[in-house]
Write a sequence for this structure.
């Protein structure tokens, strides 16, 4: 008697479990109970006659067979979605679901508004924003795990096509009670004295700051670094608490500036900007929903007081 065919929903659960590395977290993401996730994985392991995950406390790790299954499961689920979207397109509808990877603080603030406007036009399309580090986003984009990636760095790859997304401003902020509030503008040398909070080395805003400081003959090892943090929101909160001053995205600083818990400080001769790009993998088949979003981004006017820059051809 032939073996029962795989259930695509089971493969979706498997892929989410791969991503979260935790059955409870996978259940929350899929709105299922943790026992339901565990039972699905158990059924898949019974179907294949092999373990797919190794359990270590609450975390899980793929076995060698699980690692081999993951890309094939991703391909099957993607093909099924493309099939449904293609049939819907033939009926004149724009339907689908896709993931957008984002590695920039400013992108996290802009994408929800952009997606909301897109869904107002195409309400049957669902877009999921996944926040991760830059290297992981590019890797997932190249492998086809995500449809689009938003990043501050162009990584040359023959399959990737880039477009300019927007231009973000990187500004210096200080606690509301800081003496610089009343000065309004400081000189680059003043930065050497104050405790400084920096982003981690892989962050795009750190690259922009490093270049701007070097133009003023200042290197990072000359700064009085009080702390290094992994995201802009944490840095903005640390500034509010008076731990130090920091250069961050204007979008990330907006909450603190509007609430009056932080102030912007101009630095003589330093105007820092960061170009943000959106990329897609040209090698993977593009559904109508994907192309409508790609063209929608290109047409959109992002309300930043900045003009979107020209498209960037694929390498």
């Amino acid at each position: 008697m032939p073996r029962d065919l795989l259930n695509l929903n089971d493969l979706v659960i498997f892929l989410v479990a791969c991503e979260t590395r935790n059955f409870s977290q996978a259940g929350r993401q899929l709105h299922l109970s943790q026992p339901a996730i565990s039972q699905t994985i158990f059924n898949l392991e019974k179907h294949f006659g092999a373990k797919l995950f190794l359990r270590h406390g609450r975390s899980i790790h793929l076995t060698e067979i699980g690692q081999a299954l993951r890309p094939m499961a991703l391909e099957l689920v993607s093909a099924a979605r493309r099939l449904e979207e293609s049939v819907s397109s033939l009926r004149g509808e724009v339907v689908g679901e896709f993931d957008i990877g984002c590695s920039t603080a400013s992108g996290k603030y802009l994408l929800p508004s952009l997606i909301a406007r897109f869904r107002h036009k195409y309400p049957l399309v669902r877009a999921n924003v996944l926040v991760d580090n830059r290297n992981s986003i590019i890797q997932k984009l190249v492998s086809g795990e995500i449809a689009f990636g938003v990043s501050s760095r162009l990584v040359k790859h023959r399959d990737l096509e880039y477009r300019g997304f927007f231009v973000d401003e990187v500004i210096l902020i200080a606690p509301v009670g800081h003496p610089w509030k009343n000065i309004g503008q400081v000189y680059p040398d003043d930065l050497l004295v104050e405790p400084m909070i920096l982003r981690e080395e892989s962050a795009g805003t750190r690259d922009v700051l490093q270049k701007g400081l070097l133009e003023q003959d200042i290197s990072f090892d000359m700064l009085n670094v009080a702390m290094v943090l992994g995201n802009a929101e944490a840095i903005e909160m640390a500034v509010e608490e008076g731990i130090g001053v920091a250069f961050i995205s204007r979008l990330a600083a907006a909450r603190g500036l509007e609430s009056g818990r932080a102030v912007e400080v101009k630095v003589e001769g330093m105007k820092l900007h960061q170009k943000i790009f959106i990329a897609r993998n040209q090698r993977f088949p593009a559904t109508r929903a994907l192309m409508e979003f790609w063209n929608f981004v290109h047409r959109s006017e992002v309300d930043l007081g900045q003009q979107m820059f020209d498209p960037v051809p694929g390498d």
In short: The first helix runs from residue 8 to 20. The chain has three domains: 1-93, 94-166+275-299, 167-274.
